[in-house]
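Hi C.,

You asked whether I'd gotten around to modeling the 503-residue construct. I have! Everything is below, sequence then structure, no commentary in between.
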Amino acid sequence: MVEGSQQKRVVVVGAGWAGLGATYHLAKQGYDVTLLEAGPYPGGLVAGWQTAAGKSVEAGIHGFWYPYKNIFSLINQLEINPFTTWTRSSQYSPAGLEVESPIFQDLPRLPSPLGTFLYTQFKRLPLIDRLSALPLLYAVVDFDNSDDAWRRYDFVTARELFKNFNVSARLYREAFEPMLLVGLFAPGEQCSAAATLGMLYFFILAHQPDFDVVWCRGTVGEKIFRPWVEQIEKAGARVLPKRRVTDLIVDSNHRAKGVVCGDEIFDADAVIFAVGITGMKKIVSNSPSLQSHEEFRNLSNLGGIDVLATRLWFDRKIDIPRPSNACFGFDASTGWTFFDLNALHDEYRDEPGTVIEADFYHANQFLSLSDEEILAIVQSYLATCVPAFGEAKIVDSSVIRLSQAVTHFAPGSYRYMLPAKTSFENVFMSGDWVVNRHGSWSQEKAYVTGLEAANLVVSYLGEGQPAEILPVEEDEAHIQVARSLNQTLRDLGKSILPDFWLP
């Protein structure tokens, strides 16, 4: 920044991973940054708060997987230590324990995805069913996260994908659909095959350690976002909660000049939106400026998924074999997870009883129930997995209903998702639903897109240095060869055959 020159003003909308990431980098580059958050605390879905009794709760538990290079780099920059060690996890059905996962990085490394296949400990699923997944490897190779690949697979449902590649019904029912229910938060017939392949590859199939995970040792809001916001404010940015954006002020050249929050106007030389699908749709619904552009009107074609987050305090110690657990088969279209917070969170380590977080995804049928009805269901499900829960008494609880809270990667939705650049030359998008080519998912993707949006601002306004974004680990050599050969054959086919297939 030239001494004496006026700082360029940037307004960032939404204080989750994307918004905080963009704000932090731009503030360090000397920009005058204002971060607007509709909620009472920064953090979006991972903002934590306290009950009336002073106990910590948050909207679900979020894992941090081995490929989260950029988030782990941020944690090092902030010089904080919020994470557990690498943890093992289990999977349950109403029949009992189904799967146990090791710490994959501790085992001899095998070519992907052989290590994942051999080291995952299935308790009931026959080998013949697991082997039926082998033909699916072609789709994994064929889907390279390119625009062409997304358009090829996005109109197909995940259920159709697995059926077309002759995955056994039992493998789909007991392995792949449970992954979808807690990874993409919906049953297979409601998930895009493109999103399914992207998610599976990033978290499970690309490299042997990818499924290894750590957890925050308290709420993400307290352990990560609070110290991060302190550093953001030290860098000179303003973080303003309870500011719900209602419109943009736009000039005749399609440039945003300001952001409207009710009666307040925040002048801007550039704007970054960093909110989820549901929040963005609310902003568009109130904004004549955004409604005048087709790409923003088309966001009404995208949707979210209902989440139910519960936290239960039991009156006794219960032995839970693994701290993190995914569950399937309890409801036809709902996946759920439960976590032993005595093992994961510092504040409950010496708790006399047991503290459990149980989160339900695609939880539409639960949201209208009373807290008492929900808690009875949760306890009965927990007792099916670990019988000792049936004899325990709930002494305190929290029930949080989150309507349309997480992104729904529905079949055909890719064409409506926005890239980082918009038809407004100084308005940029970020978030886990934004189209990008980095290859990451979930919180890591949200953070990466925040940095990408910040870099677009740096390029547009011409001041400061771009943020360094760490790429995902390269494909292993055999995957690179297979993808290269596949692309060659695909190009050859296009040159000599009619284009029979829709994208």
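If it helps when you're writing up: Residues 89-212+473-496 form one domain.

Thanks,
B.
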